[in-house]
Amino acid sequence: MKARGFTLIELLITVAIVALLASIAAPLAELTVQRGKEKDLREALREIRGAIDAYKRATDEGAIERAADASGYPPTLATLVEGAPDKRKPDGPKIYFLRRVPADPLGGEDWGLRSYASSAAEPQPGKDVYDVYSKSDGTGLNGVPYRQW
Predict the structure, then answer these.
(1) Strand runs labelled E in the chain
(2) pTM across the whole model
(3) Contact at 8 Å (CB) between 144 and 134?
């Protein structure tokens, strides 16, 4: 009578093939995760920057009150969520620009802030929010550091 089952050699070959396939799939999975985070970062930056631009447009059109020495950009990111009173309407309803400030998918909760008075090469926070950037030290798949996106 012939014995049925797998030999040790057959099991070792099968395990080696599975390990080879797993070693090929792992970097592809990491690449997919990084692409997803980069997509989320692009969307978050676009959303925040669009809200900052809308706030500036509203101040330029006279819908939001601004001091004579102010740039017209929001004082904080929270202002975009909390809203600003519409001075064109007598009952003063608020104009909202964001439902919430999206989190930085690569750098944590907080964004790096650049004021209108600071340079693009060395962004510094100030009395307004002109732009935002990721605080992540990483570099994107395109070779550009996330801080420069």
Answers:
(1) 84-85, 94-95, 112-114, 131-133
(2) 0.81
(3) no
Q: For 5, left (φ over 0), alpha (ψ -120 to 50), or beta? A: left
Q: What's the one-letter identity of residue 49?
A: R
**Nearest Cα residue to 100 out of 84, 127, 77, 128:** 77
Instruction: Give the Cα-Cα-Cα angle 67, 73, 74 (nearest 5 degrees).
Output: 90
pLDDT per residue as tens, the chain (149 positions): 566 777 888 889 999 999 998 888 888 888 999 999 999 999 999 999 999 999 999 999 989 988 888 899 999 999 999 999 999 888 879 999 999 999 999 877 789 999 999 988 889 999 999 999 999 999 999 999 999 98
Question: Is residue 38 a contact partner of residue 141, using CB atoms and an 8 Å limit?
Answer: yes
